[in-house]
Amino acid sequence: MKVLKFGGTSVGSATNIKKVKEIVLSQNDDVIVVVSALGGITDKILTAANNAATGTSDFHTELTEIRQRHHDTMHELFNGNEPIREVVEKLLDELEQILTGITLVGELTAKTLDRIAGIGERMSSQIIAAFIGAERKDSSLLIQTDSNFGKASVDFQVTIKNIKEEFAGFRGIAVAPGFISKNSKGEFTTLGRGGSDFTAAIIAAALDVEVLEIWTDVNGFMTADPRVIRKAYTIPELTYSEAMELSHFGAKVIYPPTILPVYQKGIPILIKNTFEPENPGTRIVKDVRNGFDRPIKGISSISGITLLTMQGIGMVGVTGISMRLFTALARVNVNVILISQASSENSISVAIEEKMLSKAEQAICEEFEKEIASGQVNKIDIEKEVSVVAIVGENMKKTTGVAGKLFSTIGRNGVNIIAIAQGASELNISWVVKNEDLRKTLNVVHESFFLSEFVELNIFLMGIGTVGGNLLQQLKQQQEKLLKEKHLRVKLTGVANSKKMLFEREGIDISEFRDKLAQAEKTSSLQGFVDEMKDMNIYNSVFVDCTASDNVASVYKEILNANIAIVTANKVAASSDYENYAELKRIAKRKGVKFLFETNVGAGLPIINTLNDLVNSGDRILKIEAVLSGTLNYIFNTISEDIPLSKTILMAKEEGYSEPDPRIDLSGVDVARKILILARESGYRIEMEDISIKRFVPDSLFNGTLDEFWEGVPGLDAAFETERKKLVAENKKWRFVARFENGKAEAGLEVVDASHPFYDLEGSNNLVMYTTERYHEFPMLIKGYGAGASVTAAGVFADLIKVSNI
Ligand SMILES: NC(=O)C1=CN([C@@H]2O[C@H](COP(=O)(O)OP(=O)(O)OC[C@H]3O[C@@H](n4cnc5c(N)ncnc54)[C@H](O)[C@@H]3O)[C@@H](O)[C@H]2O)C=CC1
Ligand SMILES: N[C@@H](CC=O)C(=O)O
């Protein structure tokens, strides 16, 4: 035999009741069906009763609606031929008479309320029994309680006897109302919140049935609230204790006390979805089967919480403080959701429902009036608008490192934990965060414990020119592969050019981003972009700078401080004042987020990473010799009798090698920035002014505007051609070389012959030679394309992959 309980939504309309019938008739067993009132009816009855008692408004509005709902439902189920219409009509009349009585006396007692609160279940069970063609049983005659109207306690001895007698030898299908009971005098009582679940559990336990099925409107217990976590999924199996914990912390699938009767009998509970009956749902059992025993089963949260902290040195070592605190709260019916006390006993924090704040505060202040006045206890500290989050799982106690993983993941994402509580049973770890951090916390924890096979990276990209634009093409091309093969979901969450900015929490479709950005409402602003990124407060966020802007580089501190990682192709920050560069690295380290700029030197070549590996493994950099400008190398490899210097500069720009302002390349500043960054990454404290740059273009060309530069450059062509011819005759070439040795750096134009390693450096290639303590006689060489859209974008992409830690 089975007991199936259907909640208010499951029986909320004729259509839904038809689904219930299908489910019931598909069972290959004898079935007892326990039903709630039609969804929303109990609330309407309570409102009508209150209105009647207070005279604030006429109860007839609610009553008419209640009547109409039942008439409509019966009409649709029975095609106008309503066999139980008379019974239901009688119950509606009974309701009307009592409501009229309440209006006359102007008073609503708990006893009267219980008399009418269960009329919804009495009507629904009549309708459903008739529709299914089942026998109707009256739970109120079976479940006997005391006379604590509103939340009566069950007399299990009498109740179990009644149920056993009633169902002795029963075969077939029975329908019984949930929620209602009677006292020994035969007066109606009710079983309190979640009462229909309780009715079902009592009957299931009394008859020792095979299974109790709770049919609701969700697919069982989910790993997290699916309204917040899109990727939450159904937990196949839970232990009773885990289900109780999850329910207590907000997963409103069942009402915890209802589990008790079946828990004591070891009867499994199956949570099923009336609207998706093929979904296996969640099984709640004593011991879960192998395969369903991961350390964490689910995450729950409760919002609308206030944290009260009582603190004072006068509390240390004094017995009875906690007892007085909790007694004071209990006196005013304040439920304590979480307790946290440090072993120093200097403070106790309690989390309570926000709406209980004034009652609780008053009760505590009264209880500790003397201690507060004497300064032994400080004033009560109140932290409003917080949420309690909990992870639940019986296997936590067998697994080390859960708390470590939990709090380091949350911390890395910049969420501050206000209080923590973990019982010695290790069934649950709870903590308190600000409401504004709740969504992020749930996402971070859900991803790290349930979706470890999926990592999400939220990209906020600024600058969609040569490099940024190519990066987006590469991301689009790789998105699916990364998801499939690396389980990395790369999302473009925010993007800006110099005109507009666009944000989408669920990710912008990269194939449409240009149109969407063009139509976006928000005008681009640097601070606006940063604020929006911070406000969105999304875990695993990374800011990608593909501009060449000083202003953009100036907001890195703020971004890192908000626990957002940075990947940048822009060299400005890493080559700014040493103190700024060092501070950025310090913040990144402190916040546990990455600050990566591999493409600052040699575009996609692994020049900085290799240097870091050498240094971190204990090597010492003795000398760096390098060709670091793709633009300049391209110019010196392209210049010819037919292609003068001025044209090669234009060509380098068109090829996407030069800086947005090519004077940065021509002046040697770009190379100086790069050797400066390499020197710093080698462990030297060095500033831009320390680098000697030998320019090969007269200073006058850099002093004016960009247009003046373009106008002036052709004036150099003839002199360069003369020099070039001489070099060709001597079989020599120009190379713009950077050197770093003994703490000193320089950059300038050199002439190299065929024996020099730089001589054969083709196109826009770069070459770096590291002479180190280990690579001494034969330096380490890294060579390849040193500029260009695709290689640089690939370098940025590689840094992004590093941020994701896959
Ligand atoms: N092109 C290359 O081969 C390499 C470039 N880089 C670096 O990559 C960065 C980008 O270079 P490119 O893509 O070549 O330059 P680009 O000029 O093609 O693109 C830069 C884009 O940033 C935009 N931008 C500037 N300020 C902005 C702001 N405040 N908000 C939004 N957008 C803004 C510009 O409108 C432009 O579209 C530069 O810092 C460069 O040094 C690094 C290595 C190699
Ligand atoms: N403009 C730079 C681009 C790479 O940093 C260069 O030409 O090398």
UniProtKB/TrEMBL annotation:
Cofactor or coenzyme needed: a metal cation
Ranges of residues in domain ACT: 310-382, 391-497
Superkingdom of origin organism: Bacteria
EC number(s) reported in the record: 1.1.1.3, 2.7.2.4
Keyword Nucleotide-binding: yes
Pathway in which this enzyme or protein is active: Amino-acid biosynthesis; L-threonine biosynthesis; L-threonine from L-aspartate: step 1/5; Amino-acid biosynthesis; L-threonine biosynthesis; L-threonine from L-aspartate: step 3/5; Amino-acid biosynthesis; L-lysine biosynthesis via DAP pathway; (S)-tetrahydrodipicolinate from L-aspartate: step 1/4; Amino-acid biosynthesis; L-methionine biosynthesis via de novo pathway; L-homoserine from L-aspartate: step 3/3
Function: Bifunctional aspartate kinase and homoserine dehydrogenase that catalyzes the first and the third steps toward the synthesis of lysine, methionine and threonine from aspartate.
Protein name, per record: Bifunctional aspartate kinase/homoserine dehydrogenase I
